[in-house]
Specification:
By secondary structure, the protein is α+β, with helices and mostly antiparallel strands. Helices cover 35% and strands 26% of the residues. The protein has 6 helices and 8 strands; from the N terminus they run E-E-H-H-H-E-E-E-H-E-H-E-E-H. The longest helix is centred in the N-terminal third of the chain and has 18 residues.
C-alpha cells in the first residue's frame, strides 16, 4: 500500500483519499436532508467545502481521515467511510455515510469492515468506536453487522455537544476473533 496516498479495494468499492473532484458529489450528498439527518443535517455548499477540506487536512495532519468511497462499477463517488478522530472526539472512530441512492446495497458495512482492518493493522488502533444518533437504527444495524456492540452514551465536542450519541464499538482482539470465526 502506498502510505502517501492510501487506497483500499473491496470487491465492489475503491476507498481513496478525498480529492477536489469529489466536491460536486460531496456537496450533493450534504444537501440531502434524509441522508444527513443523523450526521449534522443539511450543509450549504460553502460548509460542505469546508467539510471536504477538513477531511483532506486531517489526512495531511494525522495521516488518516474518512476515505472517499467510489463505486467500481460506475466510477461514482458514493460516500465517505473511514477512521475519524478530530479534536475532542470520544475515541478513535470508523464512521460511514453513503449516498441515499446506494442505501441497502451493503456498501457501508463492506467499506467500514475494510477500514476497520486498516485502522487496526496500519494505524495500530486498539479499539474502534462508532458514534451513532440514538434514533439511527440503520447505523446501529451496520455496527452490529460489523460485530460492534453498544458501549455507553456519550457526547460529541462543540458545536454538537448538546446532542447525545450512542457509542458502539469493539477492541482489536474482538475484531480479530470474530474474523477468525468467519
Amino acid at each position: 500500500m502506498d502510505t502517501a496516498s492510501p487506497r483500499i479495494e473491496t470487491p465492489r468499492l475503491l476507498l481513496r483519499v478525498p480529492r477536489q473532484e469529489d466536491f460536486e458529489a460531496w456537496a450533493a450528498f450534504t444537501a440531502d436532508e434524509e441522508a444527513t439527518r443523523h450526521i449534522g443535517g443539511l450543509q450549504p455548499r460553502p460548509v460542505a467545502w469546508r467539510g471536504l477540506a477538513a477531511m483532506v487536512g486531517s489526512w495531511q495532519l494525522k495521516g488518516y481521515a474518512m476515505f472517499s468511497v467510489i463505486e467500481k462499477a460506475s466510477g461514482e463517488w458514493v460516500g465517505r467511510v473511514g477512521p475519524w478522530q478530530p479534536e475532542g472526539w470520544p475515541g478513535p472512530e470508523v464512521g460511514w455515510s453513503i449516498v441515499r441512492s446506494r442505501w441497502g446495497l451493503g456498501y457501508a458495512p463492506e467499506a467500514a469492515a475494510a477500514c476497520m482492518d486498516w485502522a487496526f493493522d496500519v494505524l495500530g488502533w486498539d479499539e474502534v468506536i462508532h458514534t451513532i444518533a440514538p434514533e439511527n437504527t440503520k447505523s446501529k444495524a451496520v455496527a452490529a453487522k460489523l460485530g460492534s456492540g453498544y458501549l455507553h452514551m456519550g457526547r460529541l465536542p462543540e458545536p454538537m455537544h448538546e446532542l447525545p450519541v450512542e457509542i458502539w464499538g469493539q477492541s482489536r482482539a474482538q475484531w480479530r476473533a470474530r474474523k477468525e470465526q468467519s
